[in-house]
């Protein structure tokens, strides 16, 4: 059996893997630096996402690695518990994902309100942009999301008075400009991903001009890896850390499975098997936790690049992990040449892409309730933190759904002669009982009344009992009794 017959799409997959590698490299490093951990740990997560998760069944063309969407949560965890505890948190989150996958919970993530997920990404995007603007200027960012936003005017004033900060900002702004304008260049030039080109150009400019900008600190791959020790495992005795573990598991799972649904729309190959994909993500995060690395999720930017580059099988994503491993082993010192404001520019652009401007407009025109959920989730994440913001968004989505599920319309038709007709439509639940009774009790007692229930999708016991009680008591003496029927008016008249 020849190599071509055994791997018929090897050429396409190798070419796609190189593209994905070039897209992933600056993002892996940038996400790690923004998360407050050594840059090499971002590469470790990318390697595990490619080789471990990439080999497992679930989604054939989806690519996993460190994600900008987890940056805020990871930074909060590292600030609270330290880098040493990160591995324990990721390990426990991975085991939780494995349990959810084996229990068949993966497919239920598709039931999470899209507005909550979009709001989560919007809030994360805002916090990333605000935080990385400080990094682009070489300044220390405030700890909270709200502090980052409110402190921007003061930070800008400080930057204007510092030549070093202005040079650093120029590097960051130039990086963003290159990424944005790269899409307008000829197709042959665009075979090199814009983010990588921007980082390379910023690095060259910094070296040639001998610019006074901070660069990535390099520890070496083996030096950066910190498997959880006894002290880190002891952190699990703190009940508060389990909230962070749960947030890691749920948010990483939701982002991965929503990404899978989006990637499935980009190709005609095998569809994602959600529970198996959950297991694959859990296995990857378990390994990342054992290595003390960043958490992973499936990432739509890398996944769409994989599909667009012509990938046909999972070999492309596995090979991208191999290329990351070779780079980390052979050329780790090149990371020390990369200016931090260039990575900040990459993440500012990534954060901007997380904000769903178009979806907010569409939702506001067609579903104002969903738009409200999105905005409240985003604002809550900025004002408080990731976990509390997402929980508030989920709670609001549940309240909105309960409100819509109890929607009821009461229509009264009085033609001046004959019985008064009352048409109930929607869902008659105890939540709407006061409104129903207010409408019915306002009807005259000296006229015959017919109440039609044919338009109801649901009538609970409390409403049925209240209707029967009102019908018995409403009519005055000598008046035809109230008639409550599920028939259409025409059928009721014919009978």
Automatic annotation (TrEMBL):
Alphabetically ordered keywords of this record: Membrane, Transmembrane, Transmembrane helix
Keyword Ligase: no
Keyword Acetylation: no
Membrane topology according to the record: Multi-pass membrane protein
GO biological process, one term: transmembrane transport
Annotated transmembrane regions: 14-34, 41-61, 81-105, 117-137, 165-182, 194-214, 240-263, 322-352, 372-399
Subcellular location: Membrane
GO CC annotation terms, alphabetical: membrane
The protein, known as: SulP family inorganic anion transporter
